Amino acid sequence: MPFPINTARDRRRRAVLGTLVGCLCVLVAAPAWAFDDAAADRALQSAQQKLRATATNPQIPTTQYPKATTNGPWRLVPNTANIDWVQGFFPGQLWLMYEQGRDPFWSTKADAWTRNLELQKSNPDIRQITHDLGFKFMTSFGQAYRLTGDDYYRQVMLTAAGSLARRFNPTVGVIDCCDWNDGTWHVPMVTDTMADLELLFWASRNGGDPAWNDMALRHALKTAADMVRADGGTFHVVDYSTSGAILSRGTYQGFSNSSTWARGQAWAIYGFTTAYRYTQDPRMLQAAQKVTDYYLARLPADSVPNWDFNAPADQQQKDSSAAAIVASALQELSRYVSDPAVALRYRNAALAMLDSLASPAYLAPATGGGPGILLHGVAFYRTAIEPQGEDIDKSLIYGDHYFVEAVSRFKLWNQSGWLSTLGFPGSLHDLGPSNTGVRIVEFDITPLSKPVDGVVGYADTSTNVTAYSSVAMSIRLNPSGFFDVRRGGDYAALASVPYQANTTYHVRMSTDLGAKTYSVWVTPPGGSEVLVADRFAFRSDAPPTDDLGKVALKSGHFDNEFRVRNHTVRAATATASSASTLTGPPRAVQKP
């Protein structure tokens, strides 16, 4: 009998939720949000109309980047503005639109605005290198590489990461920011930088210096220790002496030094969640939950915060950009927490935010009005440091970007099946301890981009899966664009079966756990089943494997590189387990 598609975490969540429903349903009704696939489609269609109008506006050359607007034209920032931070968000949205349907209109436009940012990847003058390179390059070049696999984008990102690493102060343990305020600050750190760290985390795993990962993690740990208050609120700025002593803690864009600026809190939520994705460090997950719980406890009824949680009554101004950032982050964070009740609370909170943002109160009309997607954003209100404030009650390009990202994530994660992850712990799905002897595994696999570096790997129930060497059987979507299978000490394929993005392939595997061999067939859409592996030996350096207890869906470059649906395991019948015929020498390919 096929095993159901679930994980140990899924089963724990269902057990807990079942108990809650059974015992508490008379007391509490679970919230039901209107945001669903139909609402997501409407929001994306509206966003597409706005973005298409901007991308085809002859008054906006590809060297100029939208920043903010009300009902008039975009206020633009040139690609040469090194210290500005927003240029990646517009091409990032175009790439997200390309992902929706692979319409070349979007990739052509996205590529043009992306390439014109390359000039910011390095600068001999450290003062001309902003700490915000992560915002600029992960949103643009990062999306481009994820969706196209063009190595040009990766190389640019590695150079940009090297530039960002130059800003790391090893004595203090932070990425130094804000040279424009040297007269006031010494070695400052701001909450915003938490969302920049992904560039270092990613680059360290994709051809860059492994030390960049340690820099990013040190910065995140310093943020958790010195910027996050005991109640989970955050300072916006921490300034250090050159020896690492804290000189001051306060704000630049918030209401006061003791208040919590809403978008700064959003950057912390997003940044700690992303740091956990890459590192699987429990301190990152703990920090993410701490700042999230503070944020959620102080939201108004419509789940869109005031610009500062402690601003007085005469400074009440909504910030839709903060809500968009958190709506995106909480969908991811809800997938990491082990407590099913907490996971459900985070996901429901994200849906409540999307519910409001996609409503007429915050979503700009698809036609007419200004060119922005979301209404009612604010960079920051009038403060003691900046009495005029900045971009008050406007559409903000970064709010638009994170809204499109949040809706895109909802569409991706609201579908059935399993998605691949960067970290091994999050990639695992339990199959149970009873799969011994000869077993047949079948599933449908869909690469969501090309090329990917994705592995579907199988391990024993008792194995602690922490690396590729932990899985004895591996079926791979390799970076060269075709399927191959682990055979002893290498990967090989008896026949070349290429894969394409957003195309579903059927995989069948027959494994003999006693003989420690397995065979694999792949069926392309509309084609015949192709033998890819014939009685290949289990991985030579894998732990003892006596059952099919776990399956891992591991991405090599990004989360969500492929999706698996309809995964089943069954005992072999005489027909299903019949031996295949060796058709020729396998072709060895590179290891992951």
Task: Characterize the structure shown.
This protein is α+β, with helices and mostly antiparallel strands and 592 residues long. The chain has two domains: 378 residues, Alpha/alpha barrel (Glycosyltransferase), CATH 1.50.10; 173 residues, Jelly Rolls (Sandwich), CATH 2.60.120.200. Helix content is 34%, strand content 19%. A seven-stranded antiparallel sheet has the order 11-20-13-14-15-16-22. The N terminus and C terminus are likely disordered.
Backbone CA Rg:
25 Å
Write down how many β-strands occur, each being a DSSP E stretch of 2 or more residues: 22
Here the CATH topology of the largest domain equals Glycosyltransferase
Q: Number of domains in the coordinates?
A: 2
Class derived from helix and strand content:
alpha+beta
Largest sheet: 7 strands, antiparallel
